[in-house]
Amino acid sequence: MTLRRALSTRRGHRVTSQSVSFQFDGREYTAQAGDTVASALLAHGVRLFGRSVKYRRPRGVFAAGPEEPNALLTVGTQPCVIPNVSAPQLAITPQLITRSQNRWPSLRVDLHALLQAGSGFLGAGFYYKTFMWPSWRTYETMIRHLAGLGEAPGAADIAPPHVEYVSCDVLVGGAGAAGLAAALAAARAGARVVVCEREPQAGGELEFETATIDEQSATEWVSSALAELARAGARVLYHTAIVGGSDGLVIAHAEPGGGAKDNTVYRIRPQKFVMAMGAVERGIAFVDNDRPGVMLLGAAERYLARYGVAVGKELVLFGNHDRLYASAQRLHAAGMRIRAIIDTRGDVSAVTIGLRARLTGMGVECLGGHAVAEVHGAHGVRRICVVDLQAPGTKIFIECDALLVSGGWTPMLQAALHDGGQREFAAQAGGFVANAQPEWRTAVGACAGTFELSVLLTESFRAAAQLSQSVGAMGVVGRAPVGRGDTAPQLQAFWRSACTRAQEKRQFVDLQNDVTVADLRLALSEGFVDIEHIKRYTTLGIGTEQGRTGGLLGAAIVAELKGEPLSRVGVSRTRPPYQPMTLSSLAGLNQGDALRVTRRTPLHAWNQANGAVFEPAEYWLRTRYYRANGTDAFTAGIQEATQVRAHGGILDGSTLGKIEIAGADAAAFLDRLYLTKASTMKVGRSKYMVNLREDGMVLDDGIVLRLAPNRFLATTGSGHAEHMLSHFEHYRALEWSHRQVAITNLTEAWAVIVVAGPESRAALIRVLGEAWHARLSGLTHMDFSVSRWNGQTLRVLRASFSGELAFELHCQHGIAVPLWEALVAAGLQPYGLEALDILRVEKGYLVSSEMNGEATPQDLGMDGLVNLGNECVGRAMLGRPAFAEPQRPRLVGLRACDGKSVIQGGAQITLTTTDTHALGHVSSSVYSPALGQWIALAFVARDRAAPGTVLVARDPLRGTDVDVVVTSPVHVDSSSERMKA
Amino acid sequence: MMRLTCPFCGARELHEFQFHKTAPEPGANPFAAVYERVNRTDISQEYWQHLHGCRAWLYVSRNPSTGEVYQVHLLGTQS
Question: B57 to chain A nearest CA, in Å?
C-alpha cells in the first residue's frame, strides 16, 4: 500500500517523524506522532471508515473536525467503550483501540446492508408505517437493535472531568483571524481576556491561507498575535470548544485528543462574549454523494497542511465560489494531481477567469457552469459524471479517486441562538448569520456573515475594543490588523444537481442520518411543512453532527421543493452540546460519592461491627436489622419486635431531627407553626405536636420539648430536619422578622438512643446508676430530665414510638457508644427499622406513608387536636367542604378476615373482588408478632370506614385479593396501659 | 445559568438557591393565596432561599421569559 503521505511534498505541521501504532478494526496501523486516526488511516489509503446508520452504506471521512458525519469510531473494548468519537479529532495515543460502527459482521460485509439491497430504500417513517401489525411493540426490540449510533458502554470507566470556574472581562470564542483580532483589541484595552479554541492551535483558516496580515505571512501574524496576547496575560485554551451555556454562563469543554479520557469542563462567567466561532463548510447534493472519497475541500486542505496527507491521487474539485482556485493551486503545489475543477458558476468575474486560465495552464481542466451529477464506485469514488448546467443532456465522465466538494460555509450559530439571540438570512453568506444578541455578547467574523479577511479583521477588532470599553478597559488599542490578498469568495448558491425522482433517494443531504432529498420530498407531501417538523420526521440535523454540514443544505432543498425562499423556510435549531460530551462530563463533579451526602450516626461503627444491615433513609444510613437476629429482614424484624415487647430493646435514633427554637418570641412562634399550642407547656414537659402545610395537609409531626421558658427543642421525622428547618426559617422571615426567634439545627449535635420495653426502666437505672433512680422513677409519660453521665450531658425523655414503656436518651457524641454498650450489657437487644415499623404499625403510629401530603389532621384521626382551636399556618384551610365529604379517605386499621392472608402495602381498597373503584389504599402493612397475623394501616372512604366493615384489599400487580375487616388504627394496647406503666 | 444577588453574599449561581414558590398577591384570601397562583410571563414574584449559602429567605422579582432578575431583597424587610 502506498502511503498517501509519500504523495505529498508537504511535511504536515502537526506530525513528527516519531512512529506510533494503533488498532483499527483489529488491525495494527502505524502513524506519526501527532496524527489523528483519520489522518493516519487516510495516509494508509483506507477509505472505508464505517457504515451509515440506516442504509449501512459504506462511508469514509468527509470532514476534518467535530462536524464529521461519517467517520465515527468506538474507542476501547467493552465494557469500557466510548462510542461516536469523531476520527478527525481522535489523537493517536499508546494502545489506542478503535472500531468502525454500524456494521455486522464486518465493515466490508454487512448483513443488514445485504438485506436492504433487496428491499430498496426506506423512506422517512418507514418503520413506524410498516411494522404496525399487531403492534409496533412486537418489532421494537429487533428494530432498536439495528438502530442507533454506536454501542453504549457496559460499564463506567471515565474519571470525573476536571471542572474549572473561570471569570473574565472578555471571552473570545474561536482563535481564527476574527477571534485573534478581537482578543488583541480586548487585551490592548486592558481587559482580562480568555480565548477558547477547539483546535489544538490558533489560526483557523489562516492555517493554509496565502493572504498576508500586517505585512507578515498569515502564520507569522498568528504567532506574533499569540505572543502579544501572552505578554498581556490573556489566557488561550486550546482543544476547548464552547459547547453551550445560558444566562451569562458559557460552558466550554476541553477534550485533548478526543475520547473523553482527560477532559475539563470550564464554567466561564465573562462580562462580554465575542463569538468568533467561524463557519463550517457544507456539501452539495448529487447522486451517491456519500461515497468514500467524496470529501469537503477544506478538509482535504487540512489533512495536507496538518499531516502531510494526500487524500487522493487524482482529484476533482467541485463548488460554487472563487476559493476553489486558490485551493487547487495549493493542492497542486503539494504534488497532488488535479484532474478538473467543476464550478457551478457560469457567469464569473474577470478575476475568476484569470484564475481559471492559470490553472488550465497547469493542466487542470476548468469547467465553469457545470456540476457533478453522479458518482460511480460503491466502496469509493472511481469516476464522476459531470453535466453542463446549460445543456443538461451532455455528460462528461472524469476518472478520479477523490472528489472535493465545497458548497459554501455555514456560520456556527449554536452559541448565538441561546438566551433569545437572533439570526437573520444573509444572501452573501448563502445562509443564516447571527444578528440581534443580548447586550453581553456579539458575533464577529464568519459567525456574523463576514468572510473577507480584510473586513473581518477590522470589524471584530473594533467590536471587541468597544465591548472592552463598556466594561471599563479603556487602554489604547491602536489600529486594527490589516489583511491583504484575500477577497470575498463570490459565492453563488447551488444546493443540488438535477436528477430523476428515483435518483433523489441517493442524493444525500444529511450523511450521518441517511436523510435524502427523497425523504424531504416525502415529508413535505405528508404535510410536514415546518422545518422543525421536517427535522423530527426525517431526522435531518440530529445526532452528533447537528446539521453542521447538512442542516442548511436540507433547508435550502426544502425551500426549493416548496417553492419558497430559504429565508422564510429557516433552519432548525441546534441543541447543545456543540460537540459530543460523555454523560460523565455533563455530570461534572456530581457523581459517585460526591453526588449525595451520606450521613452516619455516632453509633454507625458499632452497628457495622455488630452485623447491622443498613438502609438509606434520606441522607442517613440506618440499621434495618441485625444479622444475628434472623436469616432475613422479615424474620429478624419479627424476632427483634417480639424481644422489645417481651423484655426490651434499644434503637439507634440519632437520625431524629432536632431543631432548637429560642428567644423571647419562641413560644408564640411555635404556636403559629403547630396545630396545638407550645406556649401552654410547662418547662420540663414535652408534647406530641403536628405541623400543617399552608394548604392544611399534615407536614410533619414530632415531640416538642420545653427546655426553658424561652427555649424549645422541636423534633422532626428522620430526614425531615432540613426541610423543617427551611420551613421554620421561611415563616420567621415572612411574618416574624421583627421578633426574637433563633432557630438552630441540632440534629447532628445529639445522638439518640431509644430504650423501649417493659424492662427498659429497670435496665436504665442499672446502667445510669443510683443517682438517676429517683429521677427515672418519677418521670411520667412525656416528662424529661437533664443531667450528666460520665461527665457529659444526657437528657432522658419518656416518650414512646412503640407503644411500650420507653425512653429517648439524647446524649452528646462522646458518651453515645459507651452508653449503648452498657445498655447491651444490661440485657437490652439492639433492634432496627424493620422491628420499629412493626411496633409502630401495631400501635397505629404514623410515618411519611401516612403523612403523605394528601392527608389532613382529620384524615389522620387528629380531630381532637384540631378542635383545640389554635390558629396556626394551614388551619384556615381545614374547613374546606371537600375535606368533610363522605368519600374522603381517613386512616383506619385493617386485618385479614381469615386471620392469615398477607395484606400488601399499596393494595387498593374496594367493595368487592370485581370492583375497580378504589375507596382508598393500604399505606403500611406488617406481620404483627403480637397478634400473630398481618395488620395494616390504610386510608378508606369515611362512609365505609366504620369498624367491622368488610372490604377487599386488591393488588392486581401481585395478583392478590384479600378480604379485610376495618379496625381501629391502634392494633395493640389501645388503652396505652403498657406505655404508661 | 441564572444568578441571584443575595443581599448578604453577592451574586451567586442558581444551584446555591432553592426555589420555594411564587408569592401570593398582597391581601389575597387564604384560599387564593394557596391555590390561585398567577402565572405571569412578564414578572414573577417568588420566594427563594439561599439554602447552600447563608440560608437567607429572599423575595425575588424576575422575568421568566427573558431570565432577567429585577430585584432581590430579604423576605420580610419590605412589604
Answer: 6
Contact B30 A877 (CB under 8 A): yes
Residue A562 domain flag: no
B79: contact with A, CB 8 A cutoff: no
Domain ranges in chain B are 3-74
d(CA A327, CA A305): 11
- pTM (2 decimals)? 0.87
Q: DSSP states of A146-172 as a string? A: H-SSS---SS---PPPEEEEEEEEEEE
Q: Which of A748, A767, A782 marks a domain boundary? A: A748
The residue of chain A with its CA nearest to that of B17 is: A726
- Which residues of chain A have a CB within 8 Å of the CB of B3? 247-248
Domain CATH code at residue A641 = 3.30.1360.120
HSE of A283, CA atoms in CB hemisphere, 13 A: 31
The reply to whether B35 touches chain A by the CB within 8 Å rule is yes
**Which DSSP category does A105 fall into?**
B
**Strand A612-617 versus strand A657-662 pairing type:** unpaired
pLDDT digits (tens, 9 = 90+) for A241-279: 999 888 889 999 998 877 666 889 999 999 999 999 999
Domain shared by A38 and A16, yes or no = yes
For the stretch A329-356, pLDDT in tens is 999 999 899 999 999 999 888 888 998 9
**The CATH number of the domain covering residues in B3-74:** 3.30.2270.10
Q: Is A442 left (phi over 0), alpha (psi -120 to 50) or beta?
A: beta
Q: Domain limits at A648?
A: 607-654+750-839
A805, A664: one domain:
no
Q: Quote ipTM for the complex.
A: 0.97
* In chain A, % of residues over pLDDT 90: 77
Domains identified in chain A, total number: 5
User: Which residues of chain A from 344 to 373 reach within 8 Å of chain B, CB to CB?
Assistant: none
Residues A634 and A687 in one domain: no
Give per-residue pLDDT as tens, A708-758.
999 999 999 988 999 999 999 999 999 888 889 999 999 999 999 999 999
Cβ distance A924 to A847 under 8 Å?
yes
